[in-house]
Amino acid sequence: MKIKLDKSTEILSEILEKNIIAKSKSRIEYAFDSMLEFKSNYEIENCSKDEETDELLAEYGTYNWNPEEKPEFEFTLTRQIQLDGEEEYYQIKLKLTFDPKNFGEIEDMSFWAMDFDNLAEWKAEIEKTDGYLKAKETELLNHEISLDAT
Hints:
Elements: E1 2-3, H1 8-19, H2 27-41, E2 43-44, E3 54-63, E4 72-81, E5 90-98, E6 109-112, H3 119-127, H4 130-137, E7 142-149
Parallel strand pairs: 1-2
Antiparallel strand pairs: 3-4, 3-6, 4-5, 5-7
C-alpha cells in the first residue's frame, strides 16, 4: 500500500500497538516485527526507485544526547528513504530506551540491511548480538517513533 511520508509515523505506531497486544514476546521482538511489517507492506509515495533509497538500519549503544540527563541504552530501528528529486534522506525511527546499567560494556553497533543478502539474514545476525540479547530480557523504559530529515 502506498502512503504519504507524513503518515509514516502514525502507521508504524499503529502496527506496533497491534503487534504488542498478545504480550508473548519482548518489546524488542515486537519492534523488529513492526518495522519489518511496515517496510514490506507500505511503500512511501514518491520514494526514489534508485538502489539504497529505501533501507533499514539497526543500531544500538549507550548515549547521552543531553548532558542534563543521565545516559540511556538505545536500540533504534530506522527506515531511511529518499524522495524523488531531493538530496536529503528521511528517517522513520523506532527508538527503544533502556536503563544503561543493564548493558555494562556492550559496544555500540550498527547494521545496514543492504550489507546482507536479505532481511531475514540481517535480522538473524542482529539477534545474535549482546546488545539485542540483553535488550530482549531487559524492561523497556520508553519507546519513541519519529520522522527526521538528515
